[in-house]
Each structure stands twice: as structure tokens, then as C-alpha cells.
Specification:
The chain contains 6 helices and no strands. The protein has 130 residues and is mostly helical. 15% of the residues are buried.
């Protein structure tokens, strides 16, 4: 990430200190993860996804989302909730419109959430690439 900052600084795309630039990038990535999850929920509520990932507008869809999540997690013990969200982003990103939202330029693709499970069982920290 520091190399990316140095390139931006040399190209005069930024004039802020490296620590501030990196902090802003991490903030953008965190916001992108939250907005991505909100967008998945929007798609679920409006039946824009064939199958739900997080929840659903009806009790049956909610149950279906929970069953799918459990199945996904059971297929590989190394999987985390992060992987489940990434699967949702990938499904939305497979359409021409969704591709514009979840392509490699989206900050959530550039600074991923850690796959490391936290004490509460959830992966919750952003990993800063070097």
C-alpha cells in the first residue's frame, strides 16, 4: 500500500502524508464493505437475487438464507462469513450492471476484511496490504 501511495505522490495525485492517505483508503474500504452488504440486502428485499444470502423479505426467504449460509459454511471449515459476503458480491458482480459495482476497482476488493476469526467467531478487521 505504501508503494501505491508513493506512486500517487510522485504523480501528484496526492499531497497528503502517507499515514493520512492510507487511513483514508482503509476508511473507504470499510465503507465499501458496509455499503456492499446493504446493497445485497436491497437486492434480497426486492427479489433481484434468485436466492438470498443475508436475509429475505419473508420468513421463508429468511429461513432459506440461513440454510444456504449453513450449507456454505459446512462445505469447508476454513470458510468465514467474509467468504459468504464475497460470494454474494460475486453473484451480483456477474451481471453487466453489477460488474460496475463489484469490480476490482471497488475498495472492498483492494483491502479485504481479514479471514482470521476474531474471539467472537467473526472475521472483523481490515487487512492492510503492504
Amino acid at each position: 500500500m505504501l508503494a501505491e501511495y508513493n506512486n500517487a505522490f510522485r504523480a501528484r495525485r496526492t499531497s497528503v502524508a502517507a499515514s493520512q492517505w492510507i487511513s483514508e483508503r482503509v476508511t473507504q474500504a470499510a465503507i465499501a464493505w458496509v455499503l456492499g452488504a446493504v446493497f445485497v440486502r436491497f437486492c434480497e428485499e426486492n427479489f433481484l437475487l434468485e436466492a438470498p444470502y443475508i436475509a429475505g423479505p419473508t420468513p421463508a426467504r429468511q429461513t432459506y438464507a440461513q440454510e444456504r449460509h449453513s450449507q456454505f459454511m459446512a462445505q469447508d471449515a476454513a470458510r468465514t462469513h467474509r467468504d459468504w459476503l464475497v460470494a454474494a458480491f460475486d453473484e451480483i458482480g456477474s451481471s453487466p450492471t453489477g460488474r460496475m459495482l463489484f469490480d476490482r476497482h471497488n475498495p472492498l476488493r483492494q483491502i479485504p476484511i481479514s479471514k482470521e476469526k476474531q474471539p467472537n467467531g467473526y472475521g472483523a478487521s481490515l487487512t492492510t496490504p503492504t
